[in-house]
Amino acid sequence: MLLTYVYLLIAITAEVIATTSLKATEGFTRLVPTLVTLAGYGISFFFLSLVLRVLPTGIAYAIWTGVGIVLVSVVSWLWLKQSLDLPAIIGLGLILAGVVTVTLFSSSVQH
C-alpha cells in the first residue's frame, strides 16, 4: 500500500509541474515548456494508472485532483505571483480537509 501512495505522490508532482508549465507554453508555441507539460502529464497519467490498480477510481482521483489543486495554487502564488484572497484560501483549505478525510477515514481506502 505504501508503494501505491508513492506512485500517487509521483503522479501529483508530475501533474503540478505540467500544469504550472502550461502557462509558459503560450498556447503550445514554446517548445521547451510544451515538452515539459506533455512529459509531466504523461508521467502523471502513467503513475495514476498504477494507483488505480489498488485504489478505487473516485478515491484516487479525488486525492490526485484535490492535492493537485492546492499545490498548483500554492506554486502559482509563490512562483507566478498570482494572488489568493481569503475565500480562495478557505476553499483550498476545505479541499485539503476533504482529501485528508477521505484518505484517513474512508472505508473505501484500504489501510
From TrEMBL:
Membrane-traversing stretches: 34-52, 59-80, 86-105
Top-rank taxon, per record: Bacteria
SUPFAM superfamilies named among the record's database cross-references: Multidrug resistance efflux transporter EmrE (SSF103481)
Gene Ontology CC annotations of this record: plasma membrane
Family annotation (Pfam families): Multi_Drug_Res
GO molecular function, one term: amino-acid betaine transmembrane transporter activity
Keywords, comma-separated and alphabetical: Cell membrane, Membrane, Transmembrane, Transmembrane helix, Transport
Example GO biological process: xenobiotic detoxification by transmembrane export across the plasma membrane
Topological type in the membrane: Multi-pass membrane protein
Compartments reported by the entry: Cell membrane
Stored InterPro entries: EmrE-like, Small_drug/metabolite_transptr, Small_multidrug_res
Cleavable signal peptide: none
Sequence similarity: Belongs to the drug/metabolite transporter (DMT) superfamily. Small multidrug resistance (SMR) (TC 2.A.7.1) family.
Protein's UniProt name: Multidrug transporter
